[in-house]
Amino acid sequence: MQSVLSKSLNLYQNSHNGRMPRKIFVHKTTHFTDEEILGAFDAFGNKTEIELIQVIQRTNWYGLKVEDSYDQKKDKSIKQPAGYPVDRGLYQPLTGSECLLWTQGSVKGVNPQKAYQPVFKEAAVKPLPDPIMLRRFSGSGGWHDTCSSILALTKVDWNNNTLYKTLPVTLVYSQVFANVVKQTPDIVNQVYDYRFFM
Question: Which pTM does this prediction carry?
Answer without folding.
Answer: 0.83
